[in-house]
Amino acid sequence: MLEILRQVVTNLRANKLRSFLTMFGILWGVISVVILSATGEGFRRGNEKVLQELGKNVAIVWGARTGMQAGGERAGRDIRLTVHDVHALQTQSDMIQVVSAEINHGGVIKSRYNSSTSNVDGIEPQYQAIRTIDVDRGRTFSDADEAEARRVAILGSDSTTQLFGNHDSIGETIQVSGIPYTVIGRIRKKDQDSDYNGRDNDKVFVPFSAMARDFPRADVPDGVLSQIIVAPREGVVDQLPAILDSRTGRIEDIDWPLEREIRRVIAREHGFDPADRDAVRVWDTSLESIMFGRMIQTMKNFFTIVGLVTLSLGGLGVMNIMLVAVRERTREIGIRKALGATPGHIQRQFFLEGFILTLLSGTAGFLVALGLCALVNLLPMPTRFEGMILTWQAGLGAVVALVFVGVVSSTYPARRAAMLPPVEALRFES
């Protein structure tokens, strides 16, 4: 092995430019595989993070108008969601894990430093987990806050800046449409690119019970909600990929399991036909997450194929240079065979020379690629991109691809060298 390593080094030194160009093909191929794979993973994680800023696998439910007659009632009847619907969804469905009521109110918010016009959301404690209401200062709402209808508030990051500037907001009092609330928390800055009633950064959150008491909606009967937030069980989400794969029509025409279950429960409470898809509107973010995930996976697969093609072209360069080496060293091969070297010895030598050349180039490519990934990750990252992330699966795949290319590109030239007849090899003149 040491002799073969010395032979490889000797050949590299004897043909510096040719060796550099040969190694560069493999080096660039490995860099392409690693960089493109890391880029695809960065986009995948970035999109997943942005989608989860709205909530991981949640459904937002609104009341609408019936489109079918049912139970003697006319079509076109308004369906207004209430707290009774929240209780029914929680107790009558095995598909739903968490349910939370929500009321929206727009008003003037004042602090002792400034004022703003913001959306105020009345939410229940369980809402915070399924909608990723994470605080970086203070605390979240507790069950006691809800049970006692305490006048406490959690501010979005931009609302905090607008109302308090550089001052600490925790413990301060704000006036929500003239009613005092104590600030107990501030939400971390969220890179949220979708919403249904405004960005969380701009909102003020208060306990649902306090909102219902202090700000009853004048335009609708008492107890009517703005929307209901639902988090399904994991098994429900797991059904979606199979349903997507088996669809025969447009996606918007598919009656998804969670949506169908929500209509079934609410229809029992309001007396409309469970098949009436106009009566209740449902936005299931689980479906959006799966669709984005598939799009990003397709992009990753494309990147991987491009990298592997580049690596394969580098392998062809190694094969070509080894064939040239076999021709140049034909007389040497004849002398070695005349001295007793077997075809196996010759084949092993040339195979290992090509394979070691490939591995040296690939190792250099890995080091360069990892260095480039580290440099890129030092820069500020845009939304939907988490940086250059090389997973162990992608790294292992690149190593396997490199070894495969090395074996394939070295086997044929080595076989060609081993099959040279000794007499013809000795007669050969370069």
What oligomeric state is this? Answer: single chain
Q: Total strand count, please?
A: 10
| N-to-C CA distance | 27 Å
The percent of residues in helical segments reads 40-55%
Report the principal-axis shape.
elongated
The proportion of strand residues reads 15-25%
Strand order of the largest sheet: 2-3-8-5-7-6
Mean pLDDT: 84
Helix vs. strand class: alpha+beta
Q: What is the count of DSSP helices, taking H or I runs of 4+ residues?
A: 15
* String of helices and strands: HHEHEEHEHEHEEEHEHHHEHHHHH
What is the C-alpha radius of gyration, as a whole number of Å? 33 Å
Poorly predicted sequence stretches spanning 5 or more consecutive residues: none
Major sheet: size, sense and barrel closure? 6 strands, mixed, barrel
How many separate domains make up the residues? 2
Characterization of the model:
The chain is of the alpha+beta class and 430 residues long. The chain has 2 domains: 2-51 and 291-427, no CATH class; 59-282, no CATH class. It has helices at 2-14, 16-54, 83-92, 127-130, 143-147, 157-164, 208-214, 234-238, 240-245, 257-270, 285-328, 330-338, 343-377, 392-418, 422-427; strands at residues 59-63, 96-110, 115-123, 135-138, 152-155, 173-176, 179-187, 204-207, 227-232, 280-284. It is elongated and about 105 Å long.
